[in-house]
Amino acid sequence: IFIHHDGKINVCGIPWTRIGVTRQHEVVAMFDTMCHLPKILQGEYVPAPKAFKDDYNAEYPSIYFKSSPIRNPVKPGLGVVALSCSKVILADGRQEVVKIAAVDLNTSRILMNHLVCTDPHAEVSDWHSTVTGLFSWKDMEAARKAGYKVFKGWTATRDALHKFVDKDTIIVGHNLRSDLDALRMIHGRAVDIVKVVE
Predict the structure, then answer these.
(1) Separation CA 28–CA 149 (nearest Å)
(2) Which phi and psi angles does 58 have, rounded to 5°?
(3) Does residue 5 have a pLDDT over 80?
(4) Which residues make beta-bridge pairs with 135?
């Protein structure tokens, strides 16, 4: 990602333009109409896409899940946040987040770009190395020693994300329910690109 002095952005050779401050409220309004759940249900889980239904066979203890915080008028969350998590599959079938990226959709500001180390002794059945770039927990430790930011577990990651996201924030992602499950996060005000395509 290259951000030029004139405000233009170039991502993988594709030019992008930041959204002007005067038009940012229109972006939030547009995504508001695309949310999958009606307003009354937006405190619930975002529905899983049909295309990935076979990926939702692992169970996470419900006691670990936490809803996004209520909007604080003094320090409100952002309007629209794009979220992406890279995950590994543990021996018990659960997915654990090992990388998180979050971007403020209105300003293109990178909010989070971190590695996540939940349990360095956990047995991993699939590292998804082509996506995560990791082959073992030693890679995570090497990245930490090289200066990369590493969150200690999904709890710390979710708490950091909640500094930008509250109940009124719209989260945009791809197969978003999977990312939110890995973060043990309840958030129904969302737009899943897979569900939009479906």
Answers:
(1) 30
(2) -90, 145
(3) no
(4) none
Enter the tokens of residue 30: 């547009």
Pairing label, strands 95-104, 110-117: antiparallel
- Which pTM value belongs to this model? 0.88
Q: How many CA atoms lie within 13 A of 72 on its CB side?
A: 9
Sign of CA dihedral 136, 139, 141, 144: negative
The string of pLDDT tens digits covering residues 31-54 is 999 999 999 898 888 888 998 888
For the chain, the 3-state helix, strand and coil shares in percent, each to the nearest 5, are 30, 30, 40
Question: How far is CA 50 from its chain centroid?
Answer: 19
Using CA atoms, how far residue 96 sits from 39, 76, 169, 195, in Å, is: 29, 29, 24, 22
Tokens of 161: 């994300």
Per the structure block, which two tokens stand in for 97? 């987040």
Closest CA to 111 of 100, 102, 124: 102
Sign of CA dihedral 131, 47, 163, 68: negative
CA nearest neighbour of 99 among 111, 112, 110, 109: 112
